[in-house]
Amino acid sequence: MQNFITFETITTKMSRTQTSELVDANSIMFSDWTVQKLDALSAKRDAWEQGIFKKANEELYSLLADALDLYYHSEAIIQSVEVKAHGKSYTSKLRVELSKRLKELGVKVQNNSTTLTMLVRYVFKSDRKRAHGYSQVLGAAIQDNVQPGNLAIYITNAGGVEQIKRRMVLSEEALAKREQVANATNSVKASVQPIEVARRLRLTPLLRGVGPDAFQVTQRRRRDAQLSHAPPSSWP
User: Fold this and answer.
1) Percent with pLDDT over 90 in the chain
2) pTM, whole model, 2 decimals?
3) Per-residue confidence (pLDDT) for residue 65, from 0 to 100
4) Where are the domains of the chain?
5) Number of other residues whose CB lies within 10 A of the CB of residue 151
6) What confidence category does residue 208 fall into, taking pLDDT thresholds of 50, 70 and 90?
């Protein structure tokens, strides 16, 4: 996938207003470019679903590979020298545009949805369950640094789309449990600490001045007390 976007360079000689205006213009250009690519992918998905290859994994894997390629290119643009300093503005503009268009199509997207999920939802439109599953597959591929050209082999070797989905669900559950254990441990530590501090504060006055002399005095007092209660030696 070639990158046909040529951004105007932001220089240090520009005023804050000029920089803001240029960032806004470039981010709109980036958003429009991404949406155009998504429209092409969506048309390809329509052709796949309506054609004789509807159940062919090869066509599905090719479509997912194109979606992964688009994601990588979008991330590369955001991380590029021309954009990186203002990357959040570009991502924000894209998410706003995607949310707007998806809403027009009757597709609901949560505010906390990842950009990857939004891209996949745009391609697969209203099929939420399937789109979520495909975004999990692409998320796994991104974690494993899989390139688009190798995605079909990656999915096949992993046991297929459903197997990868199950693996990702298990990973998410394990992460959630780990966070629960960590939170519980921190909670216990937080509750025990005040008790330990109080205990030390109560003992501090007793421990002050305890040295060899104080120890000897204590031992002598105990010995005297024992002698005072001892029976007379003349007792039978």
Assistant:
1) 26
2) 0.65
3) 95
4) 16-158, 164-208
5) 21
6) low
